[in-house]
Design brief:
single chain; alpha+beta; Glutaredoxin; Glutathione S-transferase Yfyf (Class Pi), Chain A, domain 2; four-stranded mixed sheet; 9 helices; binds glutathione
């Protein structure tokens, strides 16, 4: 049995965040798929979400907990700032990405495209039109929070966990029309994305296309 196991699907943005942290630290691990919502899944994650994580006797869920553990338990480059104030800014970014960002960008917008792909139907045009203003406002807020010209969200030269929470979401937003054109108008976020997406960890964790309709 592998020493480090990440449970989840490679197309999930949160799973990719955990994979990015593991890749940046150079940790060998196995990515084990879960049957979403199954009893076996419930045994791994009490809320039946992904990812879940195991390292020997350590069992974890919640991506921030998993990635902090990966950073602190393994050798390799630090993924959290040394200074308390910078670490707080990193945590602030992660909170904003997982709360306001995930809601406006993923749940209320990207999922409209994802579920249509999974059903093999056209996305709901009126629902997309209703979600676009919040998606645009959220990305504009992220653009304004990014320190000017910075290659990282916190402002240093090297990425922190915060960068690995936002990258997987922007990866998908660059593939849907309204968000792609809005991102093209945001120079800071666009340059930030290009820098982080060029890292080896990002190339090694590129997600497969979302699953299509069954049967
Ligand atoms: N707060 C959780 C969120 C995890 C989450 O929402 N994962 C999504 C995939 S990106 C999921 O499991 N979705 C499946 C479902 O809701 O059934 C974390 O930080 O890990």
């Amino acid at each position: 049995m592998a020493d480090v196991v990440l449970y989840g699907m490679a197309f999930s943005s949160y799973v990719r965040t955990a994979r990015l942290a593991l890749a940046e630290k150079g940790v060998d691990y196995v990515l084990e798929p879960v049957e979403l919502g199954s009893e076996a899944h419930g045994a791994l994650h009490p809320f039946r979400k992904m990812p879940a994580f195991r390292h020997g006797p350590v069992h974890l869920f919640e991506t921030f907990a998993i990635t902090r553990y990966v950073d602190e338990a393994f050798a390799g480059p630090p993924l959290q700032p040394a200074e308390a104030a910078d670490r707080a800014v990193m945590t602030q970014w992660i909170g904003a990405i997982c709360d306001y960002g995930y809601t406006a960008l993923v749940r209320d917008y990207l999922f409209l495209y994802l579920f249509a792909t999974m059903r093999g139907t056209e996305p709901d045009r009126s629902a997309i039109d209703a979600a676009v203003p919040k998606m645009q406002a959220t990305l504009l807020t992220f653009e304004r929070l990014l320190p000017p010209g910075s290659p990282t969200l916190v402002g240093g030269d090297t990425p922190t966990l915060a960068d690995f929470f936002l990258l997987p979401i922007l990866h998908y937003l660059r593939r849907t029309p309204e968000s792609a054109s809005h991102l093209a108008s945001l120079p800071g976020l666009s340059a930030w994305f290009d820098g982080i997406a060029a890292r080896q960890s990002a190339i090694d964790t590129l997600p497969p296309p979302p699953p299509g309709p069954k049967g």
